[in-house]
Amino acid sequence: MEDIKCNVGVLKDVLGSSMFSFKGTVVYCAVLHMSEPPLRHEDDEKAYVEVKCKTSSHFHSKELERYISNYINKIIHKFCILEADKFKMMQINIFISEKYSNILCCAINSCLLALLDAGIPLRKMFYAVSTCQYEEEAIVFEKEKESFIHIFSHAFGKISADAIQKAKKDLEILEEYILFSLRDKFILVE
């Protein structure tokens, strides 16, 4: 996993924001604010989450934007402690600005960084890695104490067990980049 760039606090006037870049694909994420949820909110015991995704190119469809938004929404519901902000609505915007490969991988990592920058509590850390075997590939892991557990994979093709093991090895490098980008935000204790 070379060619990674990431940072937090890249936008003003939002709760949290981030940029994550990998192999030329650049994704920005912003946690806009916590506000009142819509009147018809399904689960009053958890925060309502709204994820919007936009691309900078007219060549990509609304279908791609919905696809990314839906996956990010699932990740947020799995890893965020939404019960801590019940009766609120969390708005998250994702903007894909350059190139277009490994978008979901970059979006997941950018979302992680923006959530941490905003101070949104997480159940566990999560990371997405790509082996670049396919143009669009995301292999997602959660951190369980000192090990990484494979949660799901998505690609426009079959991901082998060997590819998942290779991705697992790349996780340590990715985690270092992400933790380094958070160095001014948190005191990290080993």
UniProtKB/TrEMBL annotation:
GO process terms (BP): nuclear mRNA surveillance; poly(A)-dependent snoRNA 3'-end processing; rRNA catabolic process; U4 snRNA 3'-end processing
Gene Ontology MF terms: RNA binding
Exoribonuclease phosphorolytic domain ranges (all copies): 3-121
Cellular component annotations (GO), alphabetically ordered: cytoplasmic exosome (RNase complex); nuclear exosome (RNase complex); nucleolus
Family to which this protein belongs: Belongs to the RNase PH family.
Identification of the protein by name: Putative exoribonuclease
Species whose genome carries this gene: Hamiltosporidium magnivora
